[in-house]
Amino acid sequence: MYPPIQTQKFPLSPPSLSELAQTLHPALSTNYTHSSISIAPCPDLRNAPFHLATQGLCGEEKIADIGGQAHLFPRPRLDRIYSMTEIAHSAMEMSPTKGGSIIGAGAGPFHLVGQNCELATSFSWDRDGDREGIEGVVDNQSYITRMCNGGRTTSHVRVEKSPSTECALMANLYGSLGEPGPVLKITARGRKKGGEKSFTECIRQGLRQVYGEERTVSLGGVFVVKAGTAKYHVMPDFPGDDKLPFKHRGEVEEWLTFHEFAAEVVGLSVLHSADPRGEMGLRMEHTHCFSVGSNAGGHYHGDVGEEEVEYEGYFNTAKVIYRVDMPGM
Question: What is the CATH number of domain 7-324?
């Protein structure tokens, strides 16, 4: 059922968390009226407001970039369906006997949902995987965001638990043992006029300004939009054959639906300061969001309220990147 995949592995040598805290401070202070970055114990992410399947973000930290946007444009590759548990176990070299967790952003399992959708991934497996098999011990707290009844307005957005640990087309995943430990705690409030509208892009650009193209620094983590309003897109169902292939990127933008949702919303993010050697075809930043108890979610673009917005995030560095099923490989 799953496509044969090739994987490239690229080891990283990330800076210490203390160095990153200093590195990112100028970018945050330039973009927000109030900001802080420190090294702090990761809160238990299983609890509110996060509602994830993982306790923490520490232990054998790694990132996988699976598929890519070329599997959507110019024509959706409906054969690109992936088992994220299998990718974690094989491509990402994550042992089921140690337990582990995955968070991130990707395209949802359209073949099970019945339509195209956005996926905010969060699942974990316990240390009994050697007895029962990795699929049998998964705690899946992933969410999908979809457009219901063929609509395009915000009233048609639905946020629901994902029915599986599969994804399609593309995904950007942060994997770890899910253990508690020190992470970067980043807070920001009141975006300044002219500043980056995206919290994650502010972080990514801050890394790039310091480390340039010569050194790749990759982060994965979770944040909460605690106050204010942010903009998201939600993919509708795939276009009919009469509207494919997409002729240019502008047609993709017209096909997407865009929405604004007020806090609180949880974001799961993977980002890179640079593409190693410029040849891995990485998606440089990818964040998908969800809310528990309301229909707010989708692909995060940034906040719209400037002085009203407030973020609180927890991130950790990856020690290796796995490029899985890169288009054109």
Answer: 3.30.1330.80
